[in-house]
Amino acid sequence: MKSIYKDKYYNHFSKKEDKEVPFLFKDQNFMMRFVTTLPGYIFDENSLTIIYFKKGSGQLCWRDKNAKIDDDKFIIANPSSGWEYINNEEKYIDVLSFAISDHFRKQFNFYVNSPQIQLLDTPFDTLKEEYFFIESPLSTQYYSSGKLLDQIHTISSQAEYEFLSPEELTIEVLQSLYKEQTNGYKIANKIKAKKNSTKLETLKRLLIVRDFIHDNIGDKLSLDLLSNISSLSKFHLYSSFKTVFGKTPHQYINWLRLSKAKHYILKGDFTASEIALILGFSDLPSFSKLFKKAYGVSPSNFNINE
Fold first, then answer.
1. What's the first-to-final CA gap in the chain, in angstroms?
2. Which residues neighbour 157 within 8 Å (Cβ) at sequence distance 6 or greater?
3. 169, 31 Cβ separation under 8 angstroms
4. Same structural domain for residues 217 and 279?
5. Are 93 and 35 in contact (CB under 8 A)?
6. What angle, rounded to 10 degrees, do the helices at 196-215 and 166-188 form?
7. Distance from the CA of 201 to the CA of which of 8, 121, 148, 262 falls in 20 to 30 A?
8. Strand 40-44's sheet: what is its strand order?
9. Which 3 state secondary structure label does DSSP give 43?
10. Of 184 and 246, which is predicted with more confidence?
11. CB-based contacts of 219: which residues, under 8 Å, 6+ apart?
12. Cβ atoms of 105 and 111 closer than 8 Å
């Protein structure tokens, strides 16, 4: 794994690099880049933390739960009593991470929750209101905030990175996360449950299922399998998935496969038979029938009509 950050920890806020992993503090902002064999790390009384694993794996553990991390995943840790990262394999991990001070976060909270007149009258106020970010590994390619993190990760290896403001990059990431989180709350409110915490937990499990579908679209995806992935009964999964995404799991899988099939056909790299195999259709006739029903023409005629 070749990188200018190999075996070092670089903090873009301080413009300093260390051979040893630095201590993070709640009252300071950090924007770290590193490619190391970090075996583990503990952040007691942590501030809001955003971690993007470009490469690498491990577990992020809280007092009452843990989350498995894989390549191209990002995860958010809300301010809490602390978290611990464990890398049992001790392989190299390629990471971009943000630790956002409580004061900076409260200033941002004030900005996004205050009317315009208040922003003009008391621009430097803070707001203690907390946001509950979903603490679950998310695939970068399926979320705008994940794509932004990947862009920043790419830029961090270029010469221009030195001249970019870490504060402005942090604000961009916070704004993107806040926008997605607001949409998440709206979506969660559709779920039938009395407690908001139950709605958010259900949404988190549905997002895990959706990401799993995207990552394994060429495999056989049964309702029982997705039920096991989400730790929801298939009846609960079916109903909640349809409520949140507007399609049943089976309908969503077919929609995604046909969308990808359309993309592959337009690129012209594969035959219809190859596309059917790649995307997990049972056979070519089934693929052709579904494709024609969705787009009005057969796969073989689609590119010509386009």
1. 42
2. 3, 4, 5
3. yes
4. no
5. yes
6. 110
7. 148
8. 40-44, 82-86, 58-61, 66-69
9. strand
10. 246
11. 280
12. no
